[in-house]
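Collaborator request, handled under Task 6.
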Amino acid sequence: MKNFFSLLGREFKLFWANRILRLLFIGAPIMYGVLLGYVYQKGKVTDLPIIVVDEDRSSMSQKVIEMLGDNEILKVALVKNDESGLSKQVLDLDADCVVMIPKDFEKDVLTRKNPEIVTIVNTSNVLTANYASGAIQLVLGTFKAGTQMETLRKQGTPENLLMSSYEPFKTTFIKKFNRSTNYMYFLWPGVLATVLQQVLLLALALSFASEFENGTFAELTRRTSVFSMIAVKVIPYLIMSFGIWLMYFGFTFWFRIPIKENLGGLTLIAGVFVLAVSFMGILVSILIPNQLKATEVLMVVATPSFILSGFTWPLSQMPVWVQHIASGIPLTHFLKAFRTLLVEDGTIQQTVPYVMSMVWIGLVCAAGSIIALYFKRRQATGKF
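Structure tokens returned to the collaborator:
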């Protein structure tokens, strides 16, 4: 029994002596608890951007716009008088809904011609679409009831007959993009991209760390330059990632997911994503010359990335400091480009900001890798 407790004590000492393990085992639960608490702190979404197309431009249509703006869930990001350039503006503003008020709306309401307000719902993100469309339904329902009662009251209709007399206008909701609000179409591609990032980071965490641990780094430095060493480590994963990408494309036929348009453009964007992730993994592998510790550190980065990416829970609803963390993760920008290009049927030009963000992440990590590897090489060989 004494020996058993002695071994227990030894195990605790070994644990406490490992700074990385201590940090991960104790710090990671605290960090994730706090981080995820801040991500979902609001518990509900607010200020979701919508576009209003007001072809009537009357006092009654203005009242509808004011009521939409007063709802805490909605933010009227743009008011237009016609539909010109509407599709582009929906993507540029990341609008969740478009409310279309027809011409002669006020006139038709007052003359009982039963006009129709059409709402186009962007269901590429099912969560925000449900919130936004629900809020718009509430606003229009309230406005409809108020208009109905006020008009009939002016006509001398008894109070008990107000609600059963007539409907001042109709409301129609049209789902766009993911029209069936299918969670498979919405969530599955994002999870697959997260898995690709995860395996790349974990694999590349071992690239240089294994050389340091096995004592082969000095031999490697004598055979090639800094740039060649990095290229040798990255290129095989680029090739294998392309194979995974083809496998993912095969899955779309297997699960009958209609992902065909803009596939070439998305493949190029995925290549930039893979490069950014690869250089991030290489940098950590150089800075932390231990396979286990490098893997553990990248696990901390990779595990919460899907939650922080804004793919399921909007980035705009997170604290600013969390948004800054998310902006440093390639997955955040890739998933936004993916949604714009394939789910929302956008153009390659509209993905440029997200691609450039991944390029900057890749360049920073590549530069850091080159500098760190230069000094490691110099230390190992004594040469510049």
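The cover message to the collaborator said: "The chain has 16 helices and five strands. Strands lie at 48-54, 74-80, 97-101, 116-122, 170-176. Please let us know whether this matches your experimental observations."
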